[in-house]
Amino acid sequence: MQIEAAVLRSYDRPFVLEQVELPEPGPGQVVVEIAGTGFCHTDVLPRTPGFMAAPPLIAGHEGAGVVTAIGEHAAVPVGTPVLLSYDSCATCETCLDGHPAYCRQFFRLNMTGRGAKGSPIVRDRGGEAVASRWFGQSSFATHVLAGPRNVVPVAEDLPLHLFGPLGCGIQTGAGSVLIALGVRAGSGVVVYGAGAVGLAAVMAARVAGATTIVAVDLHDARLETALELGATHVVRGNSDTLVEQVVAVTGGGAHYALDTTAVPRIISAGIDGLRPTGTIGLVGAGDQDLVLASSALAAGKNIMGILEGDAVPQLFLPRLIELWRQGRFPFDRLVTTYPLAEIDRAEHDAASGATIKPVLIPGKD
């Protein structure tokens, strides 16, 4: 079928809206008409020369929409509203152990844009193949193909166009706190970076019962938002006394920290701001080396790499939706919507910090 998609044709050029041919769904697959899809920092990684996913490519990995067609043996019927998350193989040891975010094929299935061997191929008007399996969805489009591992059925009464970010960024922040780090009631948590992932972590820390929640960022407006969403303290990330302030407000150092920046200086400060036996989780995507002093972890401190919050989307996203219904997880306050045709403005606003979480709406004027 003919669909419209925002195609990245070059590392350094704007996205281009094009008509492309979406193949029919294969066994277990579904076609989803996209109601809205989040724009995430990860979606700009294919702009990096030498990255594993290369143009031409359709990015987008926080889709939400309605199933309009199904392949043989598909488990989700036509008409079902769904959220789309990351893909996994279902058969490796970590998938079978309930940790699909650490699937042995995670990077091939999600971050090459090509998916598994034999995946359906989207083609442009000239017949050229366009990578279209970015996180098993490539949702910067009017319609996508998705599989059983990254489809999450949801209730029909949701404002579906706003819920796509639950599939990655919001899931990553909240899951890192509630699942991967296992934040306990009464503990102290520091979140470095108050973007969508970081603010989801702040909200989750409040849900978990943390009594000291510190947000660190460079943008005053985001620090104010963090306070409104549950932070008890805020610190500017460029402060010369960042570590000292964190140690002071947490009463000797944080039990848990989460870095969303991938900036080595901030990560090092996050480690220094932990109390003995504290743990910092790293979720940021960066390209700089992290070099630590040999004594950095000597007091039983821990560093944990985290993908997707270590969440199983089909289990975790319904929990987040219920928290949202209760008014305890107002992630939608972070969302600003844009027409899909204005994807370049959304990318600019996300990069500048003007918008916390852009959501693209196909067909919106």
Concise synopsis of the structure shown:
It contains 9 helices and 18 strands. The protein is of the alpha/beta class.
Structural overview:
By secondary structure, this protein is of the alpha/beta class. It has 2 domains: 198 residues, Quinone Oxidoreductase, Chain A, domain 1 (Alpha-Beta Complex); 136 residues, 3-Layer(aba) Sandwich (Rossmann fold), CATH 3.40.50.720. 23% of the residues lie in helices and 25% in strands. The protein contains 9 helices and 18 strands. The strands form 3 sheets. Strands 3, 5, 6, 9, 10, 17 and 18 form a 7-stranded mixed β-sheet that branches. Helix 7 links the parallel strand 14 and strand 15. Helix 3 runs parallel beside helix 4. The longest helix has 13 residues. The mean pLDDT is 96.
What top-tier CATH class of the largest domain fits best? Alpha Beta
Distance from first to last alpha carbon: 23 Å
CATH architecture label name of the largest domain: Alpha-Beta Complex
Q: So what's the overall shape? A: globular
Uncertain segments of ≥5 residues (pLDDT<50)?
none
Per CATH, the superfamily of the largest domain is: Medium-chain alcohol dehydrogenases, catalytic domain
Series of secondary-structure elements, N-terminal to C-terminal: EEEEEEHHEEEEHEHEHEHEHEEHEHE
Number of helices, where a helix is a run of at least 4 consecutive DSSP H or I residues:
9
CATH topology of the largest domain: Quinone Oxidoreductase, Chain A, domain 1
Biggest sheet descriptor = 7 strands, mixed
Tally the structural domains. Answer: 2
Share of helical residues = 10-25%
Integer-rounded radius of gyration: 20 Å
Strand runs, count: 18
**Estimated structural class:** alpha/beta
